[in-house]
Design brief:
Structural class: alpha/beta
CATH class: Alpha Beta
Mean pLDDT: 95
Helix content: 40-55%
Order of helices and strands: EHEHEHEHEHEHEHEHH
CATH superfamily: Metal-dependent hydrolases
Low-confidence stretches: none
CATH architecture: Alpha-Beta Barrel
Length: 272
């Protein structure tokens, strides 16, 4: 069984065939879908989907693109939303220095405020790092050192102790990944692993599969041979197959390890 650790299935791209998307997901062996919000409205949508569908779990937070819209009042509402029983993380939060839709200083400020929410709520985080892996790494190292109690107890032991979060769609180096692992973070990979001459494959060869998650980042980043089309959770096996090929193992091994890591990080039921 697979778990899609990152899919924005509240997007309008899914409005006309949502039931079919979930059906295809189940047929592909996907037992759970983690849906991160990107602002207050989409965080509410993610929670509503989680309430309506047993296999869906929500994350709540402000994406760096929307950092300018993250007032103290709306961040307070994010914290209240995080108390919902099916909210499993604060996310998608982070830094995006590629598009810079919000000023960098504001992105950093909002990231820090949301990391503080995660610490107060003892929840993991889902981190976005477009052209900002070093800067994001420094932020999580700082919060992890200041709050060693964050996610340090009350959870199963796993390959990443503490399980504080995940750097989604990870594009960093093996050295950066190992620093993340030592600070209680996983890394996750979407369809970029299937792209021709993808730079992440060399990193994968060096870090192996023990501390990774699988994601689609739907509706974005559809894997080959579907590149350019709308992505959806049913495509997770294509990603696992490529990682298994690169690491010379079987898709079932990748699925089992990544699913166990995802359950550990988000404190999902053992039955998922």
């Amino acid at each position: 069984m697979y778990i899609d650790s990152h899919a924005h299935i509240f997007f309008k791209e899914f409005s006309e065939d949502f039931a079919d998307v979930l059906r295809r997901s189940k047929e592909a062996g996907v037992s759970a879908i983690i849906v991160p919000g990107t602002d207050l409205d989409t965080s509410r949508q993610a929670v509503a989907l989680a309430e309506a569908h047993d296999e869906v779990y929500a994350c709540v937070g402000f994406h760096p693109h929307d950092a300018e819209e993250a007032s103290d009042e709306s961040l307070g509402q994010i914290e209240e939303l995080s108390r919902h029983q099916k909210v499993v993380a604060i996310g998608e939060i982070g830094l995006d220095f590629f598009y810079d839709y919000s000023p960098r200083e504001r992105q950093v400020e909002v990231l820090r405020k949301q990391l503080a929410i995660a610490v107060r709520r003892n929840l993991p985080v889902v981190i976005h790092t477009r052209d900002s892996v070093p800067e994001s790494l420094e932020e999580i190292k700082s919060i992890s050192e200041k709050h060693r109690e964050w996610r340090s107890s009350g959870y199963e032991k796993g390959p990443v102790q503490g399980a504080r979060g995940v750097f989604h769609c990870f594009s960093g180096t093996a050295e950066q990944a190992r620093t993340l692992f030592s600070n209680g973070f996983f890394v996750s990979y979407p369809g970029i692993v299937t792209f021709r001459n993808s730079s992440v494959l060399e990193t994968l060869k060096l870090i192996g599969y023990g501390s990774i998650l699988l994601e689609t980042d739907s509706p974005f980043l559809a894997p080959v041979p579907l590149r350019g089309k709308r992505n959806e959770p049913a495509n997770i096996p294509l990603i696992a197959n490529k990682i298994a090929e690169v690491l010379q193992t079987t898709p079932s091994v990748i699925a089992e390890s990544a699913s166990a890591n995802t359950r550990h990080l988000f404190s999902l039921p053992r039955t998922v």
